[in-house]
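Morning!

This is the sequence you dropped in the shared folder:
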Amino acid sequence: GDTLDSVSFPTTGWRGYAELQSLHPWLGTHSDGRIARASVDWAHSWDRYHLLLGARASSALDDGLFFQANTFLGGFLNLSGYAERSLVGTQAALGRAVLYRRTGGDATGIFSVPMYVGTSLEAGNVWSSRSAFGDGGLIVGGSLFLGFDTPLGPVFLGYGRSERGAESWYLTFGSLLREDPR
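The structure's back. Tokens below.
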């Protein structure tokens, strides 16, 4: 389901996604196994302050599926501090809280661009197999960012850092939300 009022900067509603993918040679694939993916996002607002909570997970239910089941973490709001898609595994989990405030730009002005100031706290990791799930623990990261709701779509300038010392600057185009947990 999806009741979010905006994909760019959601202020209210929720969205959920679940998928069970079954791969079989008789269906034309070179693999045999199942992959489960799920995500949920919830947004709430208090005046100009907005909170976005999200969780996603992906699991190759059969450890033989390596390439088909790879899930990537890393990047803005996706274990901030790490480079985009720099963490890869067949098992993945991510939880996050993003707090942002609208600070500028009257949406009715011709030359105005709404601006948001925000921060995030994220925890998650990837693992190479179901038996390794949990090995290495969760990585905690966070970010500080500015977001601009331009006529061509959202633009974010941010800085992210993980508790393990990884850090990155981001110039990102797109939404606060990921399309799916891959």
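Headline: Residues 105 and 112 are 5 Å apart (CA to CA).

More detail when I'm at my desk.
O.
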